[in-house]
Fold Gliding motility-associated C-terminal domain-containing protein.
Amino acid sequence: MSVQFRQVIICLFLLFPHLVKADTFVVTPSLKAAVLTVYSRWGQVVFTTQDLQRGWDGTRQNVPLPAGDYVWMLKAVDIAGQEVQKSGSILLIR
């Protein structure tokens, strides 16, 4: 099972911020059930969702978060019933 992420958009945004606008961080896997959580550098949950069509837009409760590193974790069950856990980081630039 492979999980694909739209991090390419985030990377392009970091290199060419005037050419590409990355509004949300989203995951696009084929999963039966999943939870995506984004944490601040201090371990505070800033975003969580079970709807993977809804991505993180760099805010918490509609308030823009400061630029910096954030960690994401995905816990899911794939279509074969296997548990999947992935994680990574996002650099938020304002």
Remarks:
- Confidence is low (pLDDT under 50) at residues 1-21.
